[in-house]
Amino acid sequence: MKLTTCLFAFAVLFCSYTHAQQMTIKTLPYPQTKKVDTVDTYFDTKVPDPYRWLENDQAVDTKEWVTAENKVTQNYLGQIPYREEMRKQLETLWNYEKYSAPFKEGKYTYFYKNDGLQSQSVLYRQVGDTGTPEIFLDPNKFSADGTTSLQGIDFTKDGDLAAYQISEGGSDWRKVIVIKTADNSIVGDTLTDIKFSGLAWKGTDGFYYSSYDKPKAGSQLSGLTQYHKLYYHKLGTPQSTDKLIFGGDKTPRRYIGAYLTEDERFLVITAATSTTGNELYIQDLSKPGSGIINVIDNFDNQHSILGNVGSKLYILTNIYSPNFKIVTVDAANPTVTHWQNLIPETKNVLSATTGGGKIFAEYLKDATSFVQQYDMNGKLERTINLPSVGTASGFGTKKAEKETYYTFTSYVYPPTIFKLDIATGKSTLYKKSGVKFDPEQYESKQVFYTSKDKTKIPMIITYKKGTILNGQNPTLLYAYGGFGISLTPAFSTSNIILMEHGGIYAVPNLRGGGEYGETWHRKGIKMKKQNVFDDFIAAAEYLIKNKYTSKEHLAVSGGSNGGLLIGAMITQRPDLFKVAFPAVGVLDMLRYNKFTAGAGWSYDYGTAEDSKEMFEYLYNYSPYHALKPQQYPATMVTTADHDDRVVPAHSFKFAARLQEYQKGTAPVLIRIETKAGHGAGQSTAQVISGQVDKWAFMFWNMGVKW
């Protein structure tokens, strides 16, 4: 076929591959995955687990299975005729400069920048706003293949020292390197085996950090971690002599975090047994010998300290206020009985930052941003004028600053950085996205549909203007629904591929998320988890009923807890969609708490050991256990060999059993990324490759003609 016969919508990519669509992919047979006689007993119920051996990610036979499965997957994907042209097109779309909002440390202004296709974004700095930018840290030089990433940096108050974390191959286990910012010379030894930690400097003497003892037996990636500890590292001393500040054997299964107020007077410690609710502690560092004071002694609610003015603490909390509020209290008597309301709860969910001596109240209104500025006495000064309906993030800065920055985005608004004059409330454009995308050609609208129990659920649907809603549009339905996490509008360069080909992108805000506060979250946990699945099913049915798409043109996607969601869809409603993408999913609900920090997810899920009723509920919907011999949609499970948050065993076992039980002709593949983890820190090449394979698999199995 000559190029001149193509439609020039997207050059070669959107040429008509009618003849190619008629070809048949020559598939390799699935690996003969062995089965073992492993049975667990829960409350007198025997549960077979024939693929238990795949949990051992270090075993030779597991590694051989991974190699064999990847061979099957790459053989299939490699035969899709437009895959490489799609890769070239997505690389072209991706190849533009990307910036972060700037932040100030000492005399420098820092910002991240990616030239376009660099593996990792580079940290630059300049003097003030007008100085010449220079490279400060280039993570692309951390490793030859670009899979070692920069995962956070923290500066001393004077900006003279910095400690930064690196992740190798996407692992949650981090190393910390301390440098002098004047010349980037390294100070002291590299700290190792640090996990789920911030870094909180105390002057230039040292810093606080959190970690676990690394598992000594079995896999260091999947081994159970349950004793999180807060340490203090004094510069110039060995890590082995670091002082234990909080946590350890007496506080098992805690997530422990720490930070200092900007004036470094108060050390703030949070301790949580799950992803919801935390204890709160403070220590007044201005008073030598002062002890750690317990402010909140239970895990029923969420609390954080936004800052202080002298001894007056500002606390963001959802105690008695599921949508959050801000209270104040004197540090001398910080318990709840002394709290005074400053910014009361509203019908919209509140998060907050401080900067320039102000409080920025960032509300979620039907999953979109609404921002108000208050003084430190709780007086409303103004509502920040945002450029459109979407997501605004940032705002926080140091107390002495006169201006701050925020980023605004939506499904049709590429990330754009604005500078905010704190005194006047005026926003000015600071940095516009360079992506080749015209927002005027696209439409993004919010609808409300009815779930199984008549609850109204919001969903944002995005597509190119002029798209004919005839039920034939390739559609990707993406959701999460858990851990109080809110899905707010965000631009995706990859989605241009979908929408330019008449496709539709839909995101519902399911129960279990945080879009309507803790009440919304709790309607999708434990024995109410089915609400999340019902909400998603209703979203798919809405799209089909209203002619956005059809069962033959619908794909479903989700990652992590969202991977659990898609696994449940595959087992509960395999008739409802054509293609499924469960990514890094929690798929074995009886054993998720046996690996890494998985025990901390029990607030949302419950565990099989809690009660017979909880076991039966989990066993009934657990995707790995709910599979049975029948026809399933085309499925590509995705995971990574260094995922030490949701260990790849979930995906390995689920894919093996799904391949065993598939009675239809649709493919069941598992794509296992190497030198990658749960998602953070992937190189640009890895991200693009994963997106290309997703679109190629989806379009091919829908019979979309190019």
From TrEMBL:
<keyword id="KW-0720">Serine protease</keyword>
<comment type="similarity">
    <text>Belongs to the peptidase S9A family.</text>
</comment>
<dbReference type="InterPro" id="IPR002470">
    <property type="entry name" value="Peptidase_S9A"/>
</dbReference>
<feature type="domain" description="Peptidase S9A N-terminal">
    <location>
        <begin position="31"/>
        <end position="432"/>
    </location>
</feature>
<keyword id="KW-0378">Hydrolase</keyword>
<feature type="domain" description="Peptidase S9 prolyl oligopeptidase catalytic">
    <location>
        <begin position="490"/>
        <end position="703"/>
    </location>
</feature>
<feature type="signal peptide">
    <location>
        <begin position="1"/>
        <end position="20"/>
    </location>
</feature>
<dbReference type="Pfam" id="PF02897">
    <property type="entry name" value="Peptidase_S9_N"/>
</dbReference>
<keyword id="KW-0732">Signal</keyword>
<dbReference type="InterPro" id="IPR051167">
    <property type="entry name" value="Prolyl_oligopep/macrocyclase"/>
</dbReference>
<dbReference type="InterPro" id="IPR023302">
    <property type="entry name" value="Pept_S9A_N"/>
</dbReference>
<keyword id="KW-0645">Protease</keyword>
<dbReference type="GO" id="GO:0004252">
    <property type="term" value="F:serine-type endopeptidase activity"/>
</dbReference>
<dbReference type="InterPro" id="IPR002471">
    <property type="entry name" value="Pept_S9_AS"/>
</dbReference>
<dbReference type="InterPro" id="IPR001375">
    <property type="entry name" value="Peptidase_S9_cat"/>
</dbReference>
<protein>
    <recommendedName>
        <fullName>prolyl oligopeptidase</fullName>
        <ecNumber>3.4.21.26</ecNumber>
    </recommendedName>
</protein>
<dbReference type="InterPro" id="IPR029058">
    <property type="entry name" value="AB_hydrolase_fold"/>
</dbReference>
<dbReference type="Pfam" id="PF00326">
    <property type="entry name" value="Peptidase_S9"/>
</dbReference>
